[in-house]
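A further point concerns the way the authors explain their paired sequence and structure data. Since the whole study asks how a given chain folds, the encoding of that fold should be made plain. A single example would do more here than another paragraph of explanation. An entry of this sort, consisting of the sequence and the corresponding backbone structure tokens, reads as follows:

_____
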Amino acid sequence: MADSSSAPAAAPPQTGDTLRGFLFALAAYLLWGALPLYMKALAHVPPAEVVAHRILWSVPVALMILAAIGRTADLRAAIGNPRMLGMAAVTAALIAVNWGIYVHAIGSGQALEAALGYYINPLFSVMLGVFLLGERLRPLQVAAVALAALAVAVLTWEAGRLPLLALGLTVTWGFYAYFKRRLPIGPNQGFTLEVLILLPPAAGYLVWLWAEGRGHFAASGADMALLAGTGLVTAIPLMVYANGAKGLRLSTIGIMQYIAPTLILLSAVFLFGEPFGRARAIAFPMIWAALALYAVSLFGGARAAAQAPGS
């Protein structure tokens, strides 16, 4: 989404929500939630080619936005910093893989797995905090993670295999968010740096496809418009979100991030005709219950922080 519906926080925790922040974040999540409709129209194009075009056409969009907000100097400084380039290369690789899994899931009729992956992601991020940052889980968070794990077990038992696409989306976006928070550059500049790093291999791949006569860009006017438009549908929601997150508390963002996977799920069932099935009818309510517990723990933590001495 950045096909993702649980994008990394772009600012320190807020003491209150602003209407501007709420509207920006809402717009971003609605755009991410509608993204499957766009990607479904490109289902006949191989995922690697779609991802390459997402990278290629995101570059001019991101650069124009940076120029408009006057932050190109930050980007130039980052390009000249080898350590920052190395960190951005890691996040760039993770987001490229995440995009590839997402495009494949939508195009292959597995949008429900994409929704599942983004539902699980907040709980995976909680576990990353435990194992990588030494954070302690509150009792409600333990219950939420256990419920989510049980839901995955139900799906695995029914299908005879792990829901690999969902887990792939969860893991790549979770680690992307983790490393992105440690990238010492603003979110807009960071995204631009990532797509610039990915541009040479993406452009090389597209040139190779063209030379082999296998590219879809010139196949029809519709394909040309859709592939060129991937830059807008990729860059705009991420940058809109980055501005919205500045005016919202983390607890508010934590609740709003469920908008996108819910819209993906509704599209999968009612527009794409994907079967919900018995296992999903059991597992998804378990996930929703887990997320409800997680939401309660978020608000409880925010309330405790607000009541703490010196807050």
